[in-house]
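Sequence in, structure out.
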Amino acid sequence: METCCRKKLCINAGFSFGLASTSTFGSAAAAEDEERDSLSRAFNESLSKVKAASSTVKKEDKPLFTFPGAQPFGKLESQWRDVEWTEEQKTTLMKTVSSYKPSSKEVTKARVLLLGPVGSGKSSFISSVQSVFDGRVTNRAMVGSSSTSFTKKLQSFNIRGQKGEDPNRLVLCDVMGLGDGEMTGLTLHDTLSIIKGHVPEGHKFSPDQPVRSETVGYVKRPGLNEKIHCVAFVVNASKIMSYPKGLSTTFQQLREHISDLGVHQVALLTHIDQICPDTAKDVTQVYKSCLIQNMMAKAGALLGMSTSYIVPVKNYSSELDLDMSTDILLLGAVDHILQYADLYFQDNTPQFDECA
């Protein structure tokens, strides 16, 4: 697992994720500001060009903008990650996820917390994963379209297996998005309370009413079953260059606290079809796209993690039917998450001497 510096920061119940003030996070380096502003201007200038270049893409899949730089629509001859886009590979991945069992006998399911800004695609990812196993597009988790978080409470979704099969041993936990102000979004205190297992199912979050021992349903002594076993950060590829400048510092400080709890972290890069016309038309082009490869690097810089921990995904949104390649990308992301969840169990399960 990637190592974070172990700085012990004061945890304030009112700490909110979003546009950080200079008193909280400090000013960003002048060079970073200048580079970011320059890239943002380039994005705006290139918007009209992208619309013209992507005129052949279906209306609902039209990319919002392109990444500025050399060969934005360039394609590599070979994939920069090796993926097989076949029905056999989809079947293999479904069996891998369906047969997964936590390596610890103390738990029955892996609990994964999805964290990200408003509109990053957390709820859509949950619905998309469930759709793969249902064999049709379903909306398991309610999805909003406003600028504020649609999800206000802690909701745990047990991913059902294929028809006639037992449920998968995976629970995806959805919470309100990281906000854009001091009184909006999930606070640091509440985030860590969720991960530690103190927050009851269905608890409705409010920045001015932090989770405390007096909270109704508060779990005073959570067992391994109540805790979070892996955190998956979710970022929107089409919004990376417009996220508040302080969000990177917020993410990295959050990751330090999560690392102190011994919880492994991965990341999902969503809405890749909105930034790459080729991938919008054919998902199998995702790992040949120079544009998405560049945006993966930007996501890594934003989160403060290596791109080896990040996987691109395309959620189901306007589609009515499943697509095999989209399914493979989603199942691959779930498999990636479960691998890191299992590292948590290995780290937190007592090792007994077989000869004792």
